[in-house]
Design a protein that fits this description.
alpha+beta; NE0471 N-terminal domain-like; Double-stranded beta-helix; 2 domains; 10 helices; about 20% strand; binds N-trimethyllysine; binds 2-oxoglutaric acid
Length: about 450
Amino acid sequence: MIRQRLPQLTRAARRSFYPGRIPCSRSLTTSRASLTESDGVSSNARVGRPHDISPRASNIPTISSDESKTKVSWPDGRETTFDNYFLFDHCRCPKCFHQQTKQRLKTLSVIPTDIHPISVEVDKTGVHLTWSTSDSHKSSFPLEFLRRSAYDPPLASYRDEKESRILWNSQIEQSPPSVRYTDIMSTEKEGDTSGRAILKLLNRVHDFGFCFINDVPATGEETKEVIGKVAHIRNTHYGGFWQFTADLSHGDLAYSNEGLPAHTDTTYFTDPAGLQIFHLLSHPSPPGTGGATLLVDGFYTAHLLSTLYPTSYSLLSRLRIPAHASGTEGTMLRPPLSQPSFRHDEKGQLVQVRWNNEDRGVIGQGWTPDEVKGWYLAARRYDELNRSEDAEYWVQLKPGTVLVIDNWRVMHGRSAFTGSRTMCGAYVGADDWLSRRAALTKKYEIRKKSILVEDWSVGW
Ligand SMILES: C[N+](C)(C)CCCC[C@H](N)C(=O)O
Ligand SMILES: O=C(O)CCC(=O)C(=O)O
């Protein structure tokens, strides 16, 4: 586990900031302690007048329903209420939810607006409702589902070790995350080494924002093969698997020998590439010079910005930045909806950094003059943090080492170079690699498995 020394922050900021593992997004699990099983007993109550079911077992919630809502009173004293319509809409019985495709089978128009339970039972497997429909439809909801889907009010957030990230600075160079090519390409069946190695790679990409694959044969063909094993390659106007050098075959600085500051790629796509994968195939040096690779943890520097300059963090989280790719004949990329540099999930957790000064368009449309000034101050501050000795991790890639980057988090760049340099690689969609990781996690359960049963652990 990489634990980085505190960056050169002000004393005040030091107190409030600690690099290391921080929860950054939701997980499927919750602590078992809050839902220990018991010899819960089922009980029944007529619905109409608000009722309390007072089951004997202490670990089973109390349920009460009326014509519009169902209230769950948890053993820990907290209460949360559900609209009956919400519960009926989320029924996952075979009539409502296709058991194989995991898709909802009923449309909203068939749900009576006055739907309500006529009978309520609760036991350690969950809450069982019989509805006021003509067929006395029955629904059962695991307690874990109710705890997790609570919205009135929401209950504890579902973050655990699995979904936290490990923030890093320049000291990551002491022991950067890596996996072995031979494990990923393993064909042995028992234990499925390859699948577990791919999951280890994707977990490290999730935790650190990048990971090396060591000892990859330095050919385009075998690089494309190992990438394809990990996840399917995303096609763009650069093609699928690409090989590039300084020939300006594409109207982009990547196809030159210029240095490139820390940036994330494809900010000009509505859905920026999820993974950016590089393999330096050749750069004879000498006579060539330069061409080192730069990595910066955009989440780490965003965390610093939010600590040191919260107003700047807020502006970069709110003001939308146009981006474009216009340098190649026949390509005029410009997403119809610009996005801010920092994007957050519904729980306010940072999930994406979009940072590319070269491809940034004309800012300020719809902004106030103060916002224009404020944005430049904020952007300069973030740029300074990204360019600090503390944040920059420079590494000289060599043929044989593939670099897999979470392009939604970690920025990359390069130093200017001379000589003949050939780089290859590919993009993978964000949803695609996260899906691959979730499916492998489910298969191998290497990390804490959700205690939600099959049908209830999907669709969040
Ligand atoms: C990776 N490859 C050389 C194919 C394309 C590079 C695209 C670089 C572009 N400025 C961007 O940031 O998206
Ligand atoms: O050539 C390199 O090392 C990186 C090029 C780059 O930044 C890119 O392709 O986005």
